[in-house]
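One such shown below:
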Amino acid sequence: MYFCHIASKSIDMDPDNKEIGFFKKLHHKYRLVIMNNETLEEKLSIRLTRFAVFLAIGTIFFLLIVGTIYLIAFTPLREYIPGYADFNTRQVLRELTIRADSLEKDLRQKDLFIMNIRNIVEGRDLIEEIPDTVSDTDAFLIQDIPRSREDSILRAEMEMAVQIENTFWASSERTLLRAPEHFTFFPPITGVISSHFNPLKNHFGVDVVADHDEIIKATMDGTVILSAWTAETGYTIGIQHAHNIISIYKHNSQLLKEQGSFVEAGEPIAIIGDTGLYSTGTHLHFELWFNGYSVNPADYISFQ
């Protein structure tokens, strides 16, 4: 067993000097001795002063402070300190924010495109912006908004103006679709037209009656952008063609292509059927859209 013994030796041995200055006490010499408790053998002896002790402790604290500052300033540990971030971190966050905004804008544009495709399939009007809440698009229909007599008159005038504009567009733009060197349409099916194109009654295509299990073919080369079931139109398939042309095939009994598939003109894509609430018998409801406007398929395709 060991024990420590500290012996001191004063520099000033004058007994009359009762008050020793502070600085003189700092230089009083002490000896730290580690001895064996049983044999009293001296194992270690250290000579020191109060000044040396203060200097050693001060040096240790100084080194700790310098080391902490170094870790904070020159190592990645500074990023874990709350509220501390370097210029590079702020720049990265700014770039990530810009990228997130760009991705959000792209997603909204894609959602708008998909919603307009669904509106085309279901016979609704196209929209230019995505509503704030898209859980129930029926909530944004005009007829659900309370209206006064003056408001009803204004709405009727605006709807008539839109119909006139659509009619004028169809008559002026058909010459573009009739150019055989640019557009060639393959008949999707052979049969008899039972219901003709009439946009004023929200009938944006033609109904073609044919035999049961008749194969429906793609009218042009393109990519399938819609291949799904809807309550109103049953099994429906839509194809995006070149020159902003879209073809829609409704009321099928079976779909042969999935969304994202590329098809060629004349390739089988579905089988004629009688599905959906709007169907009145086995037939194909076929629509053509150009630049977001419906056109009469019978003007460009012979179904006989």
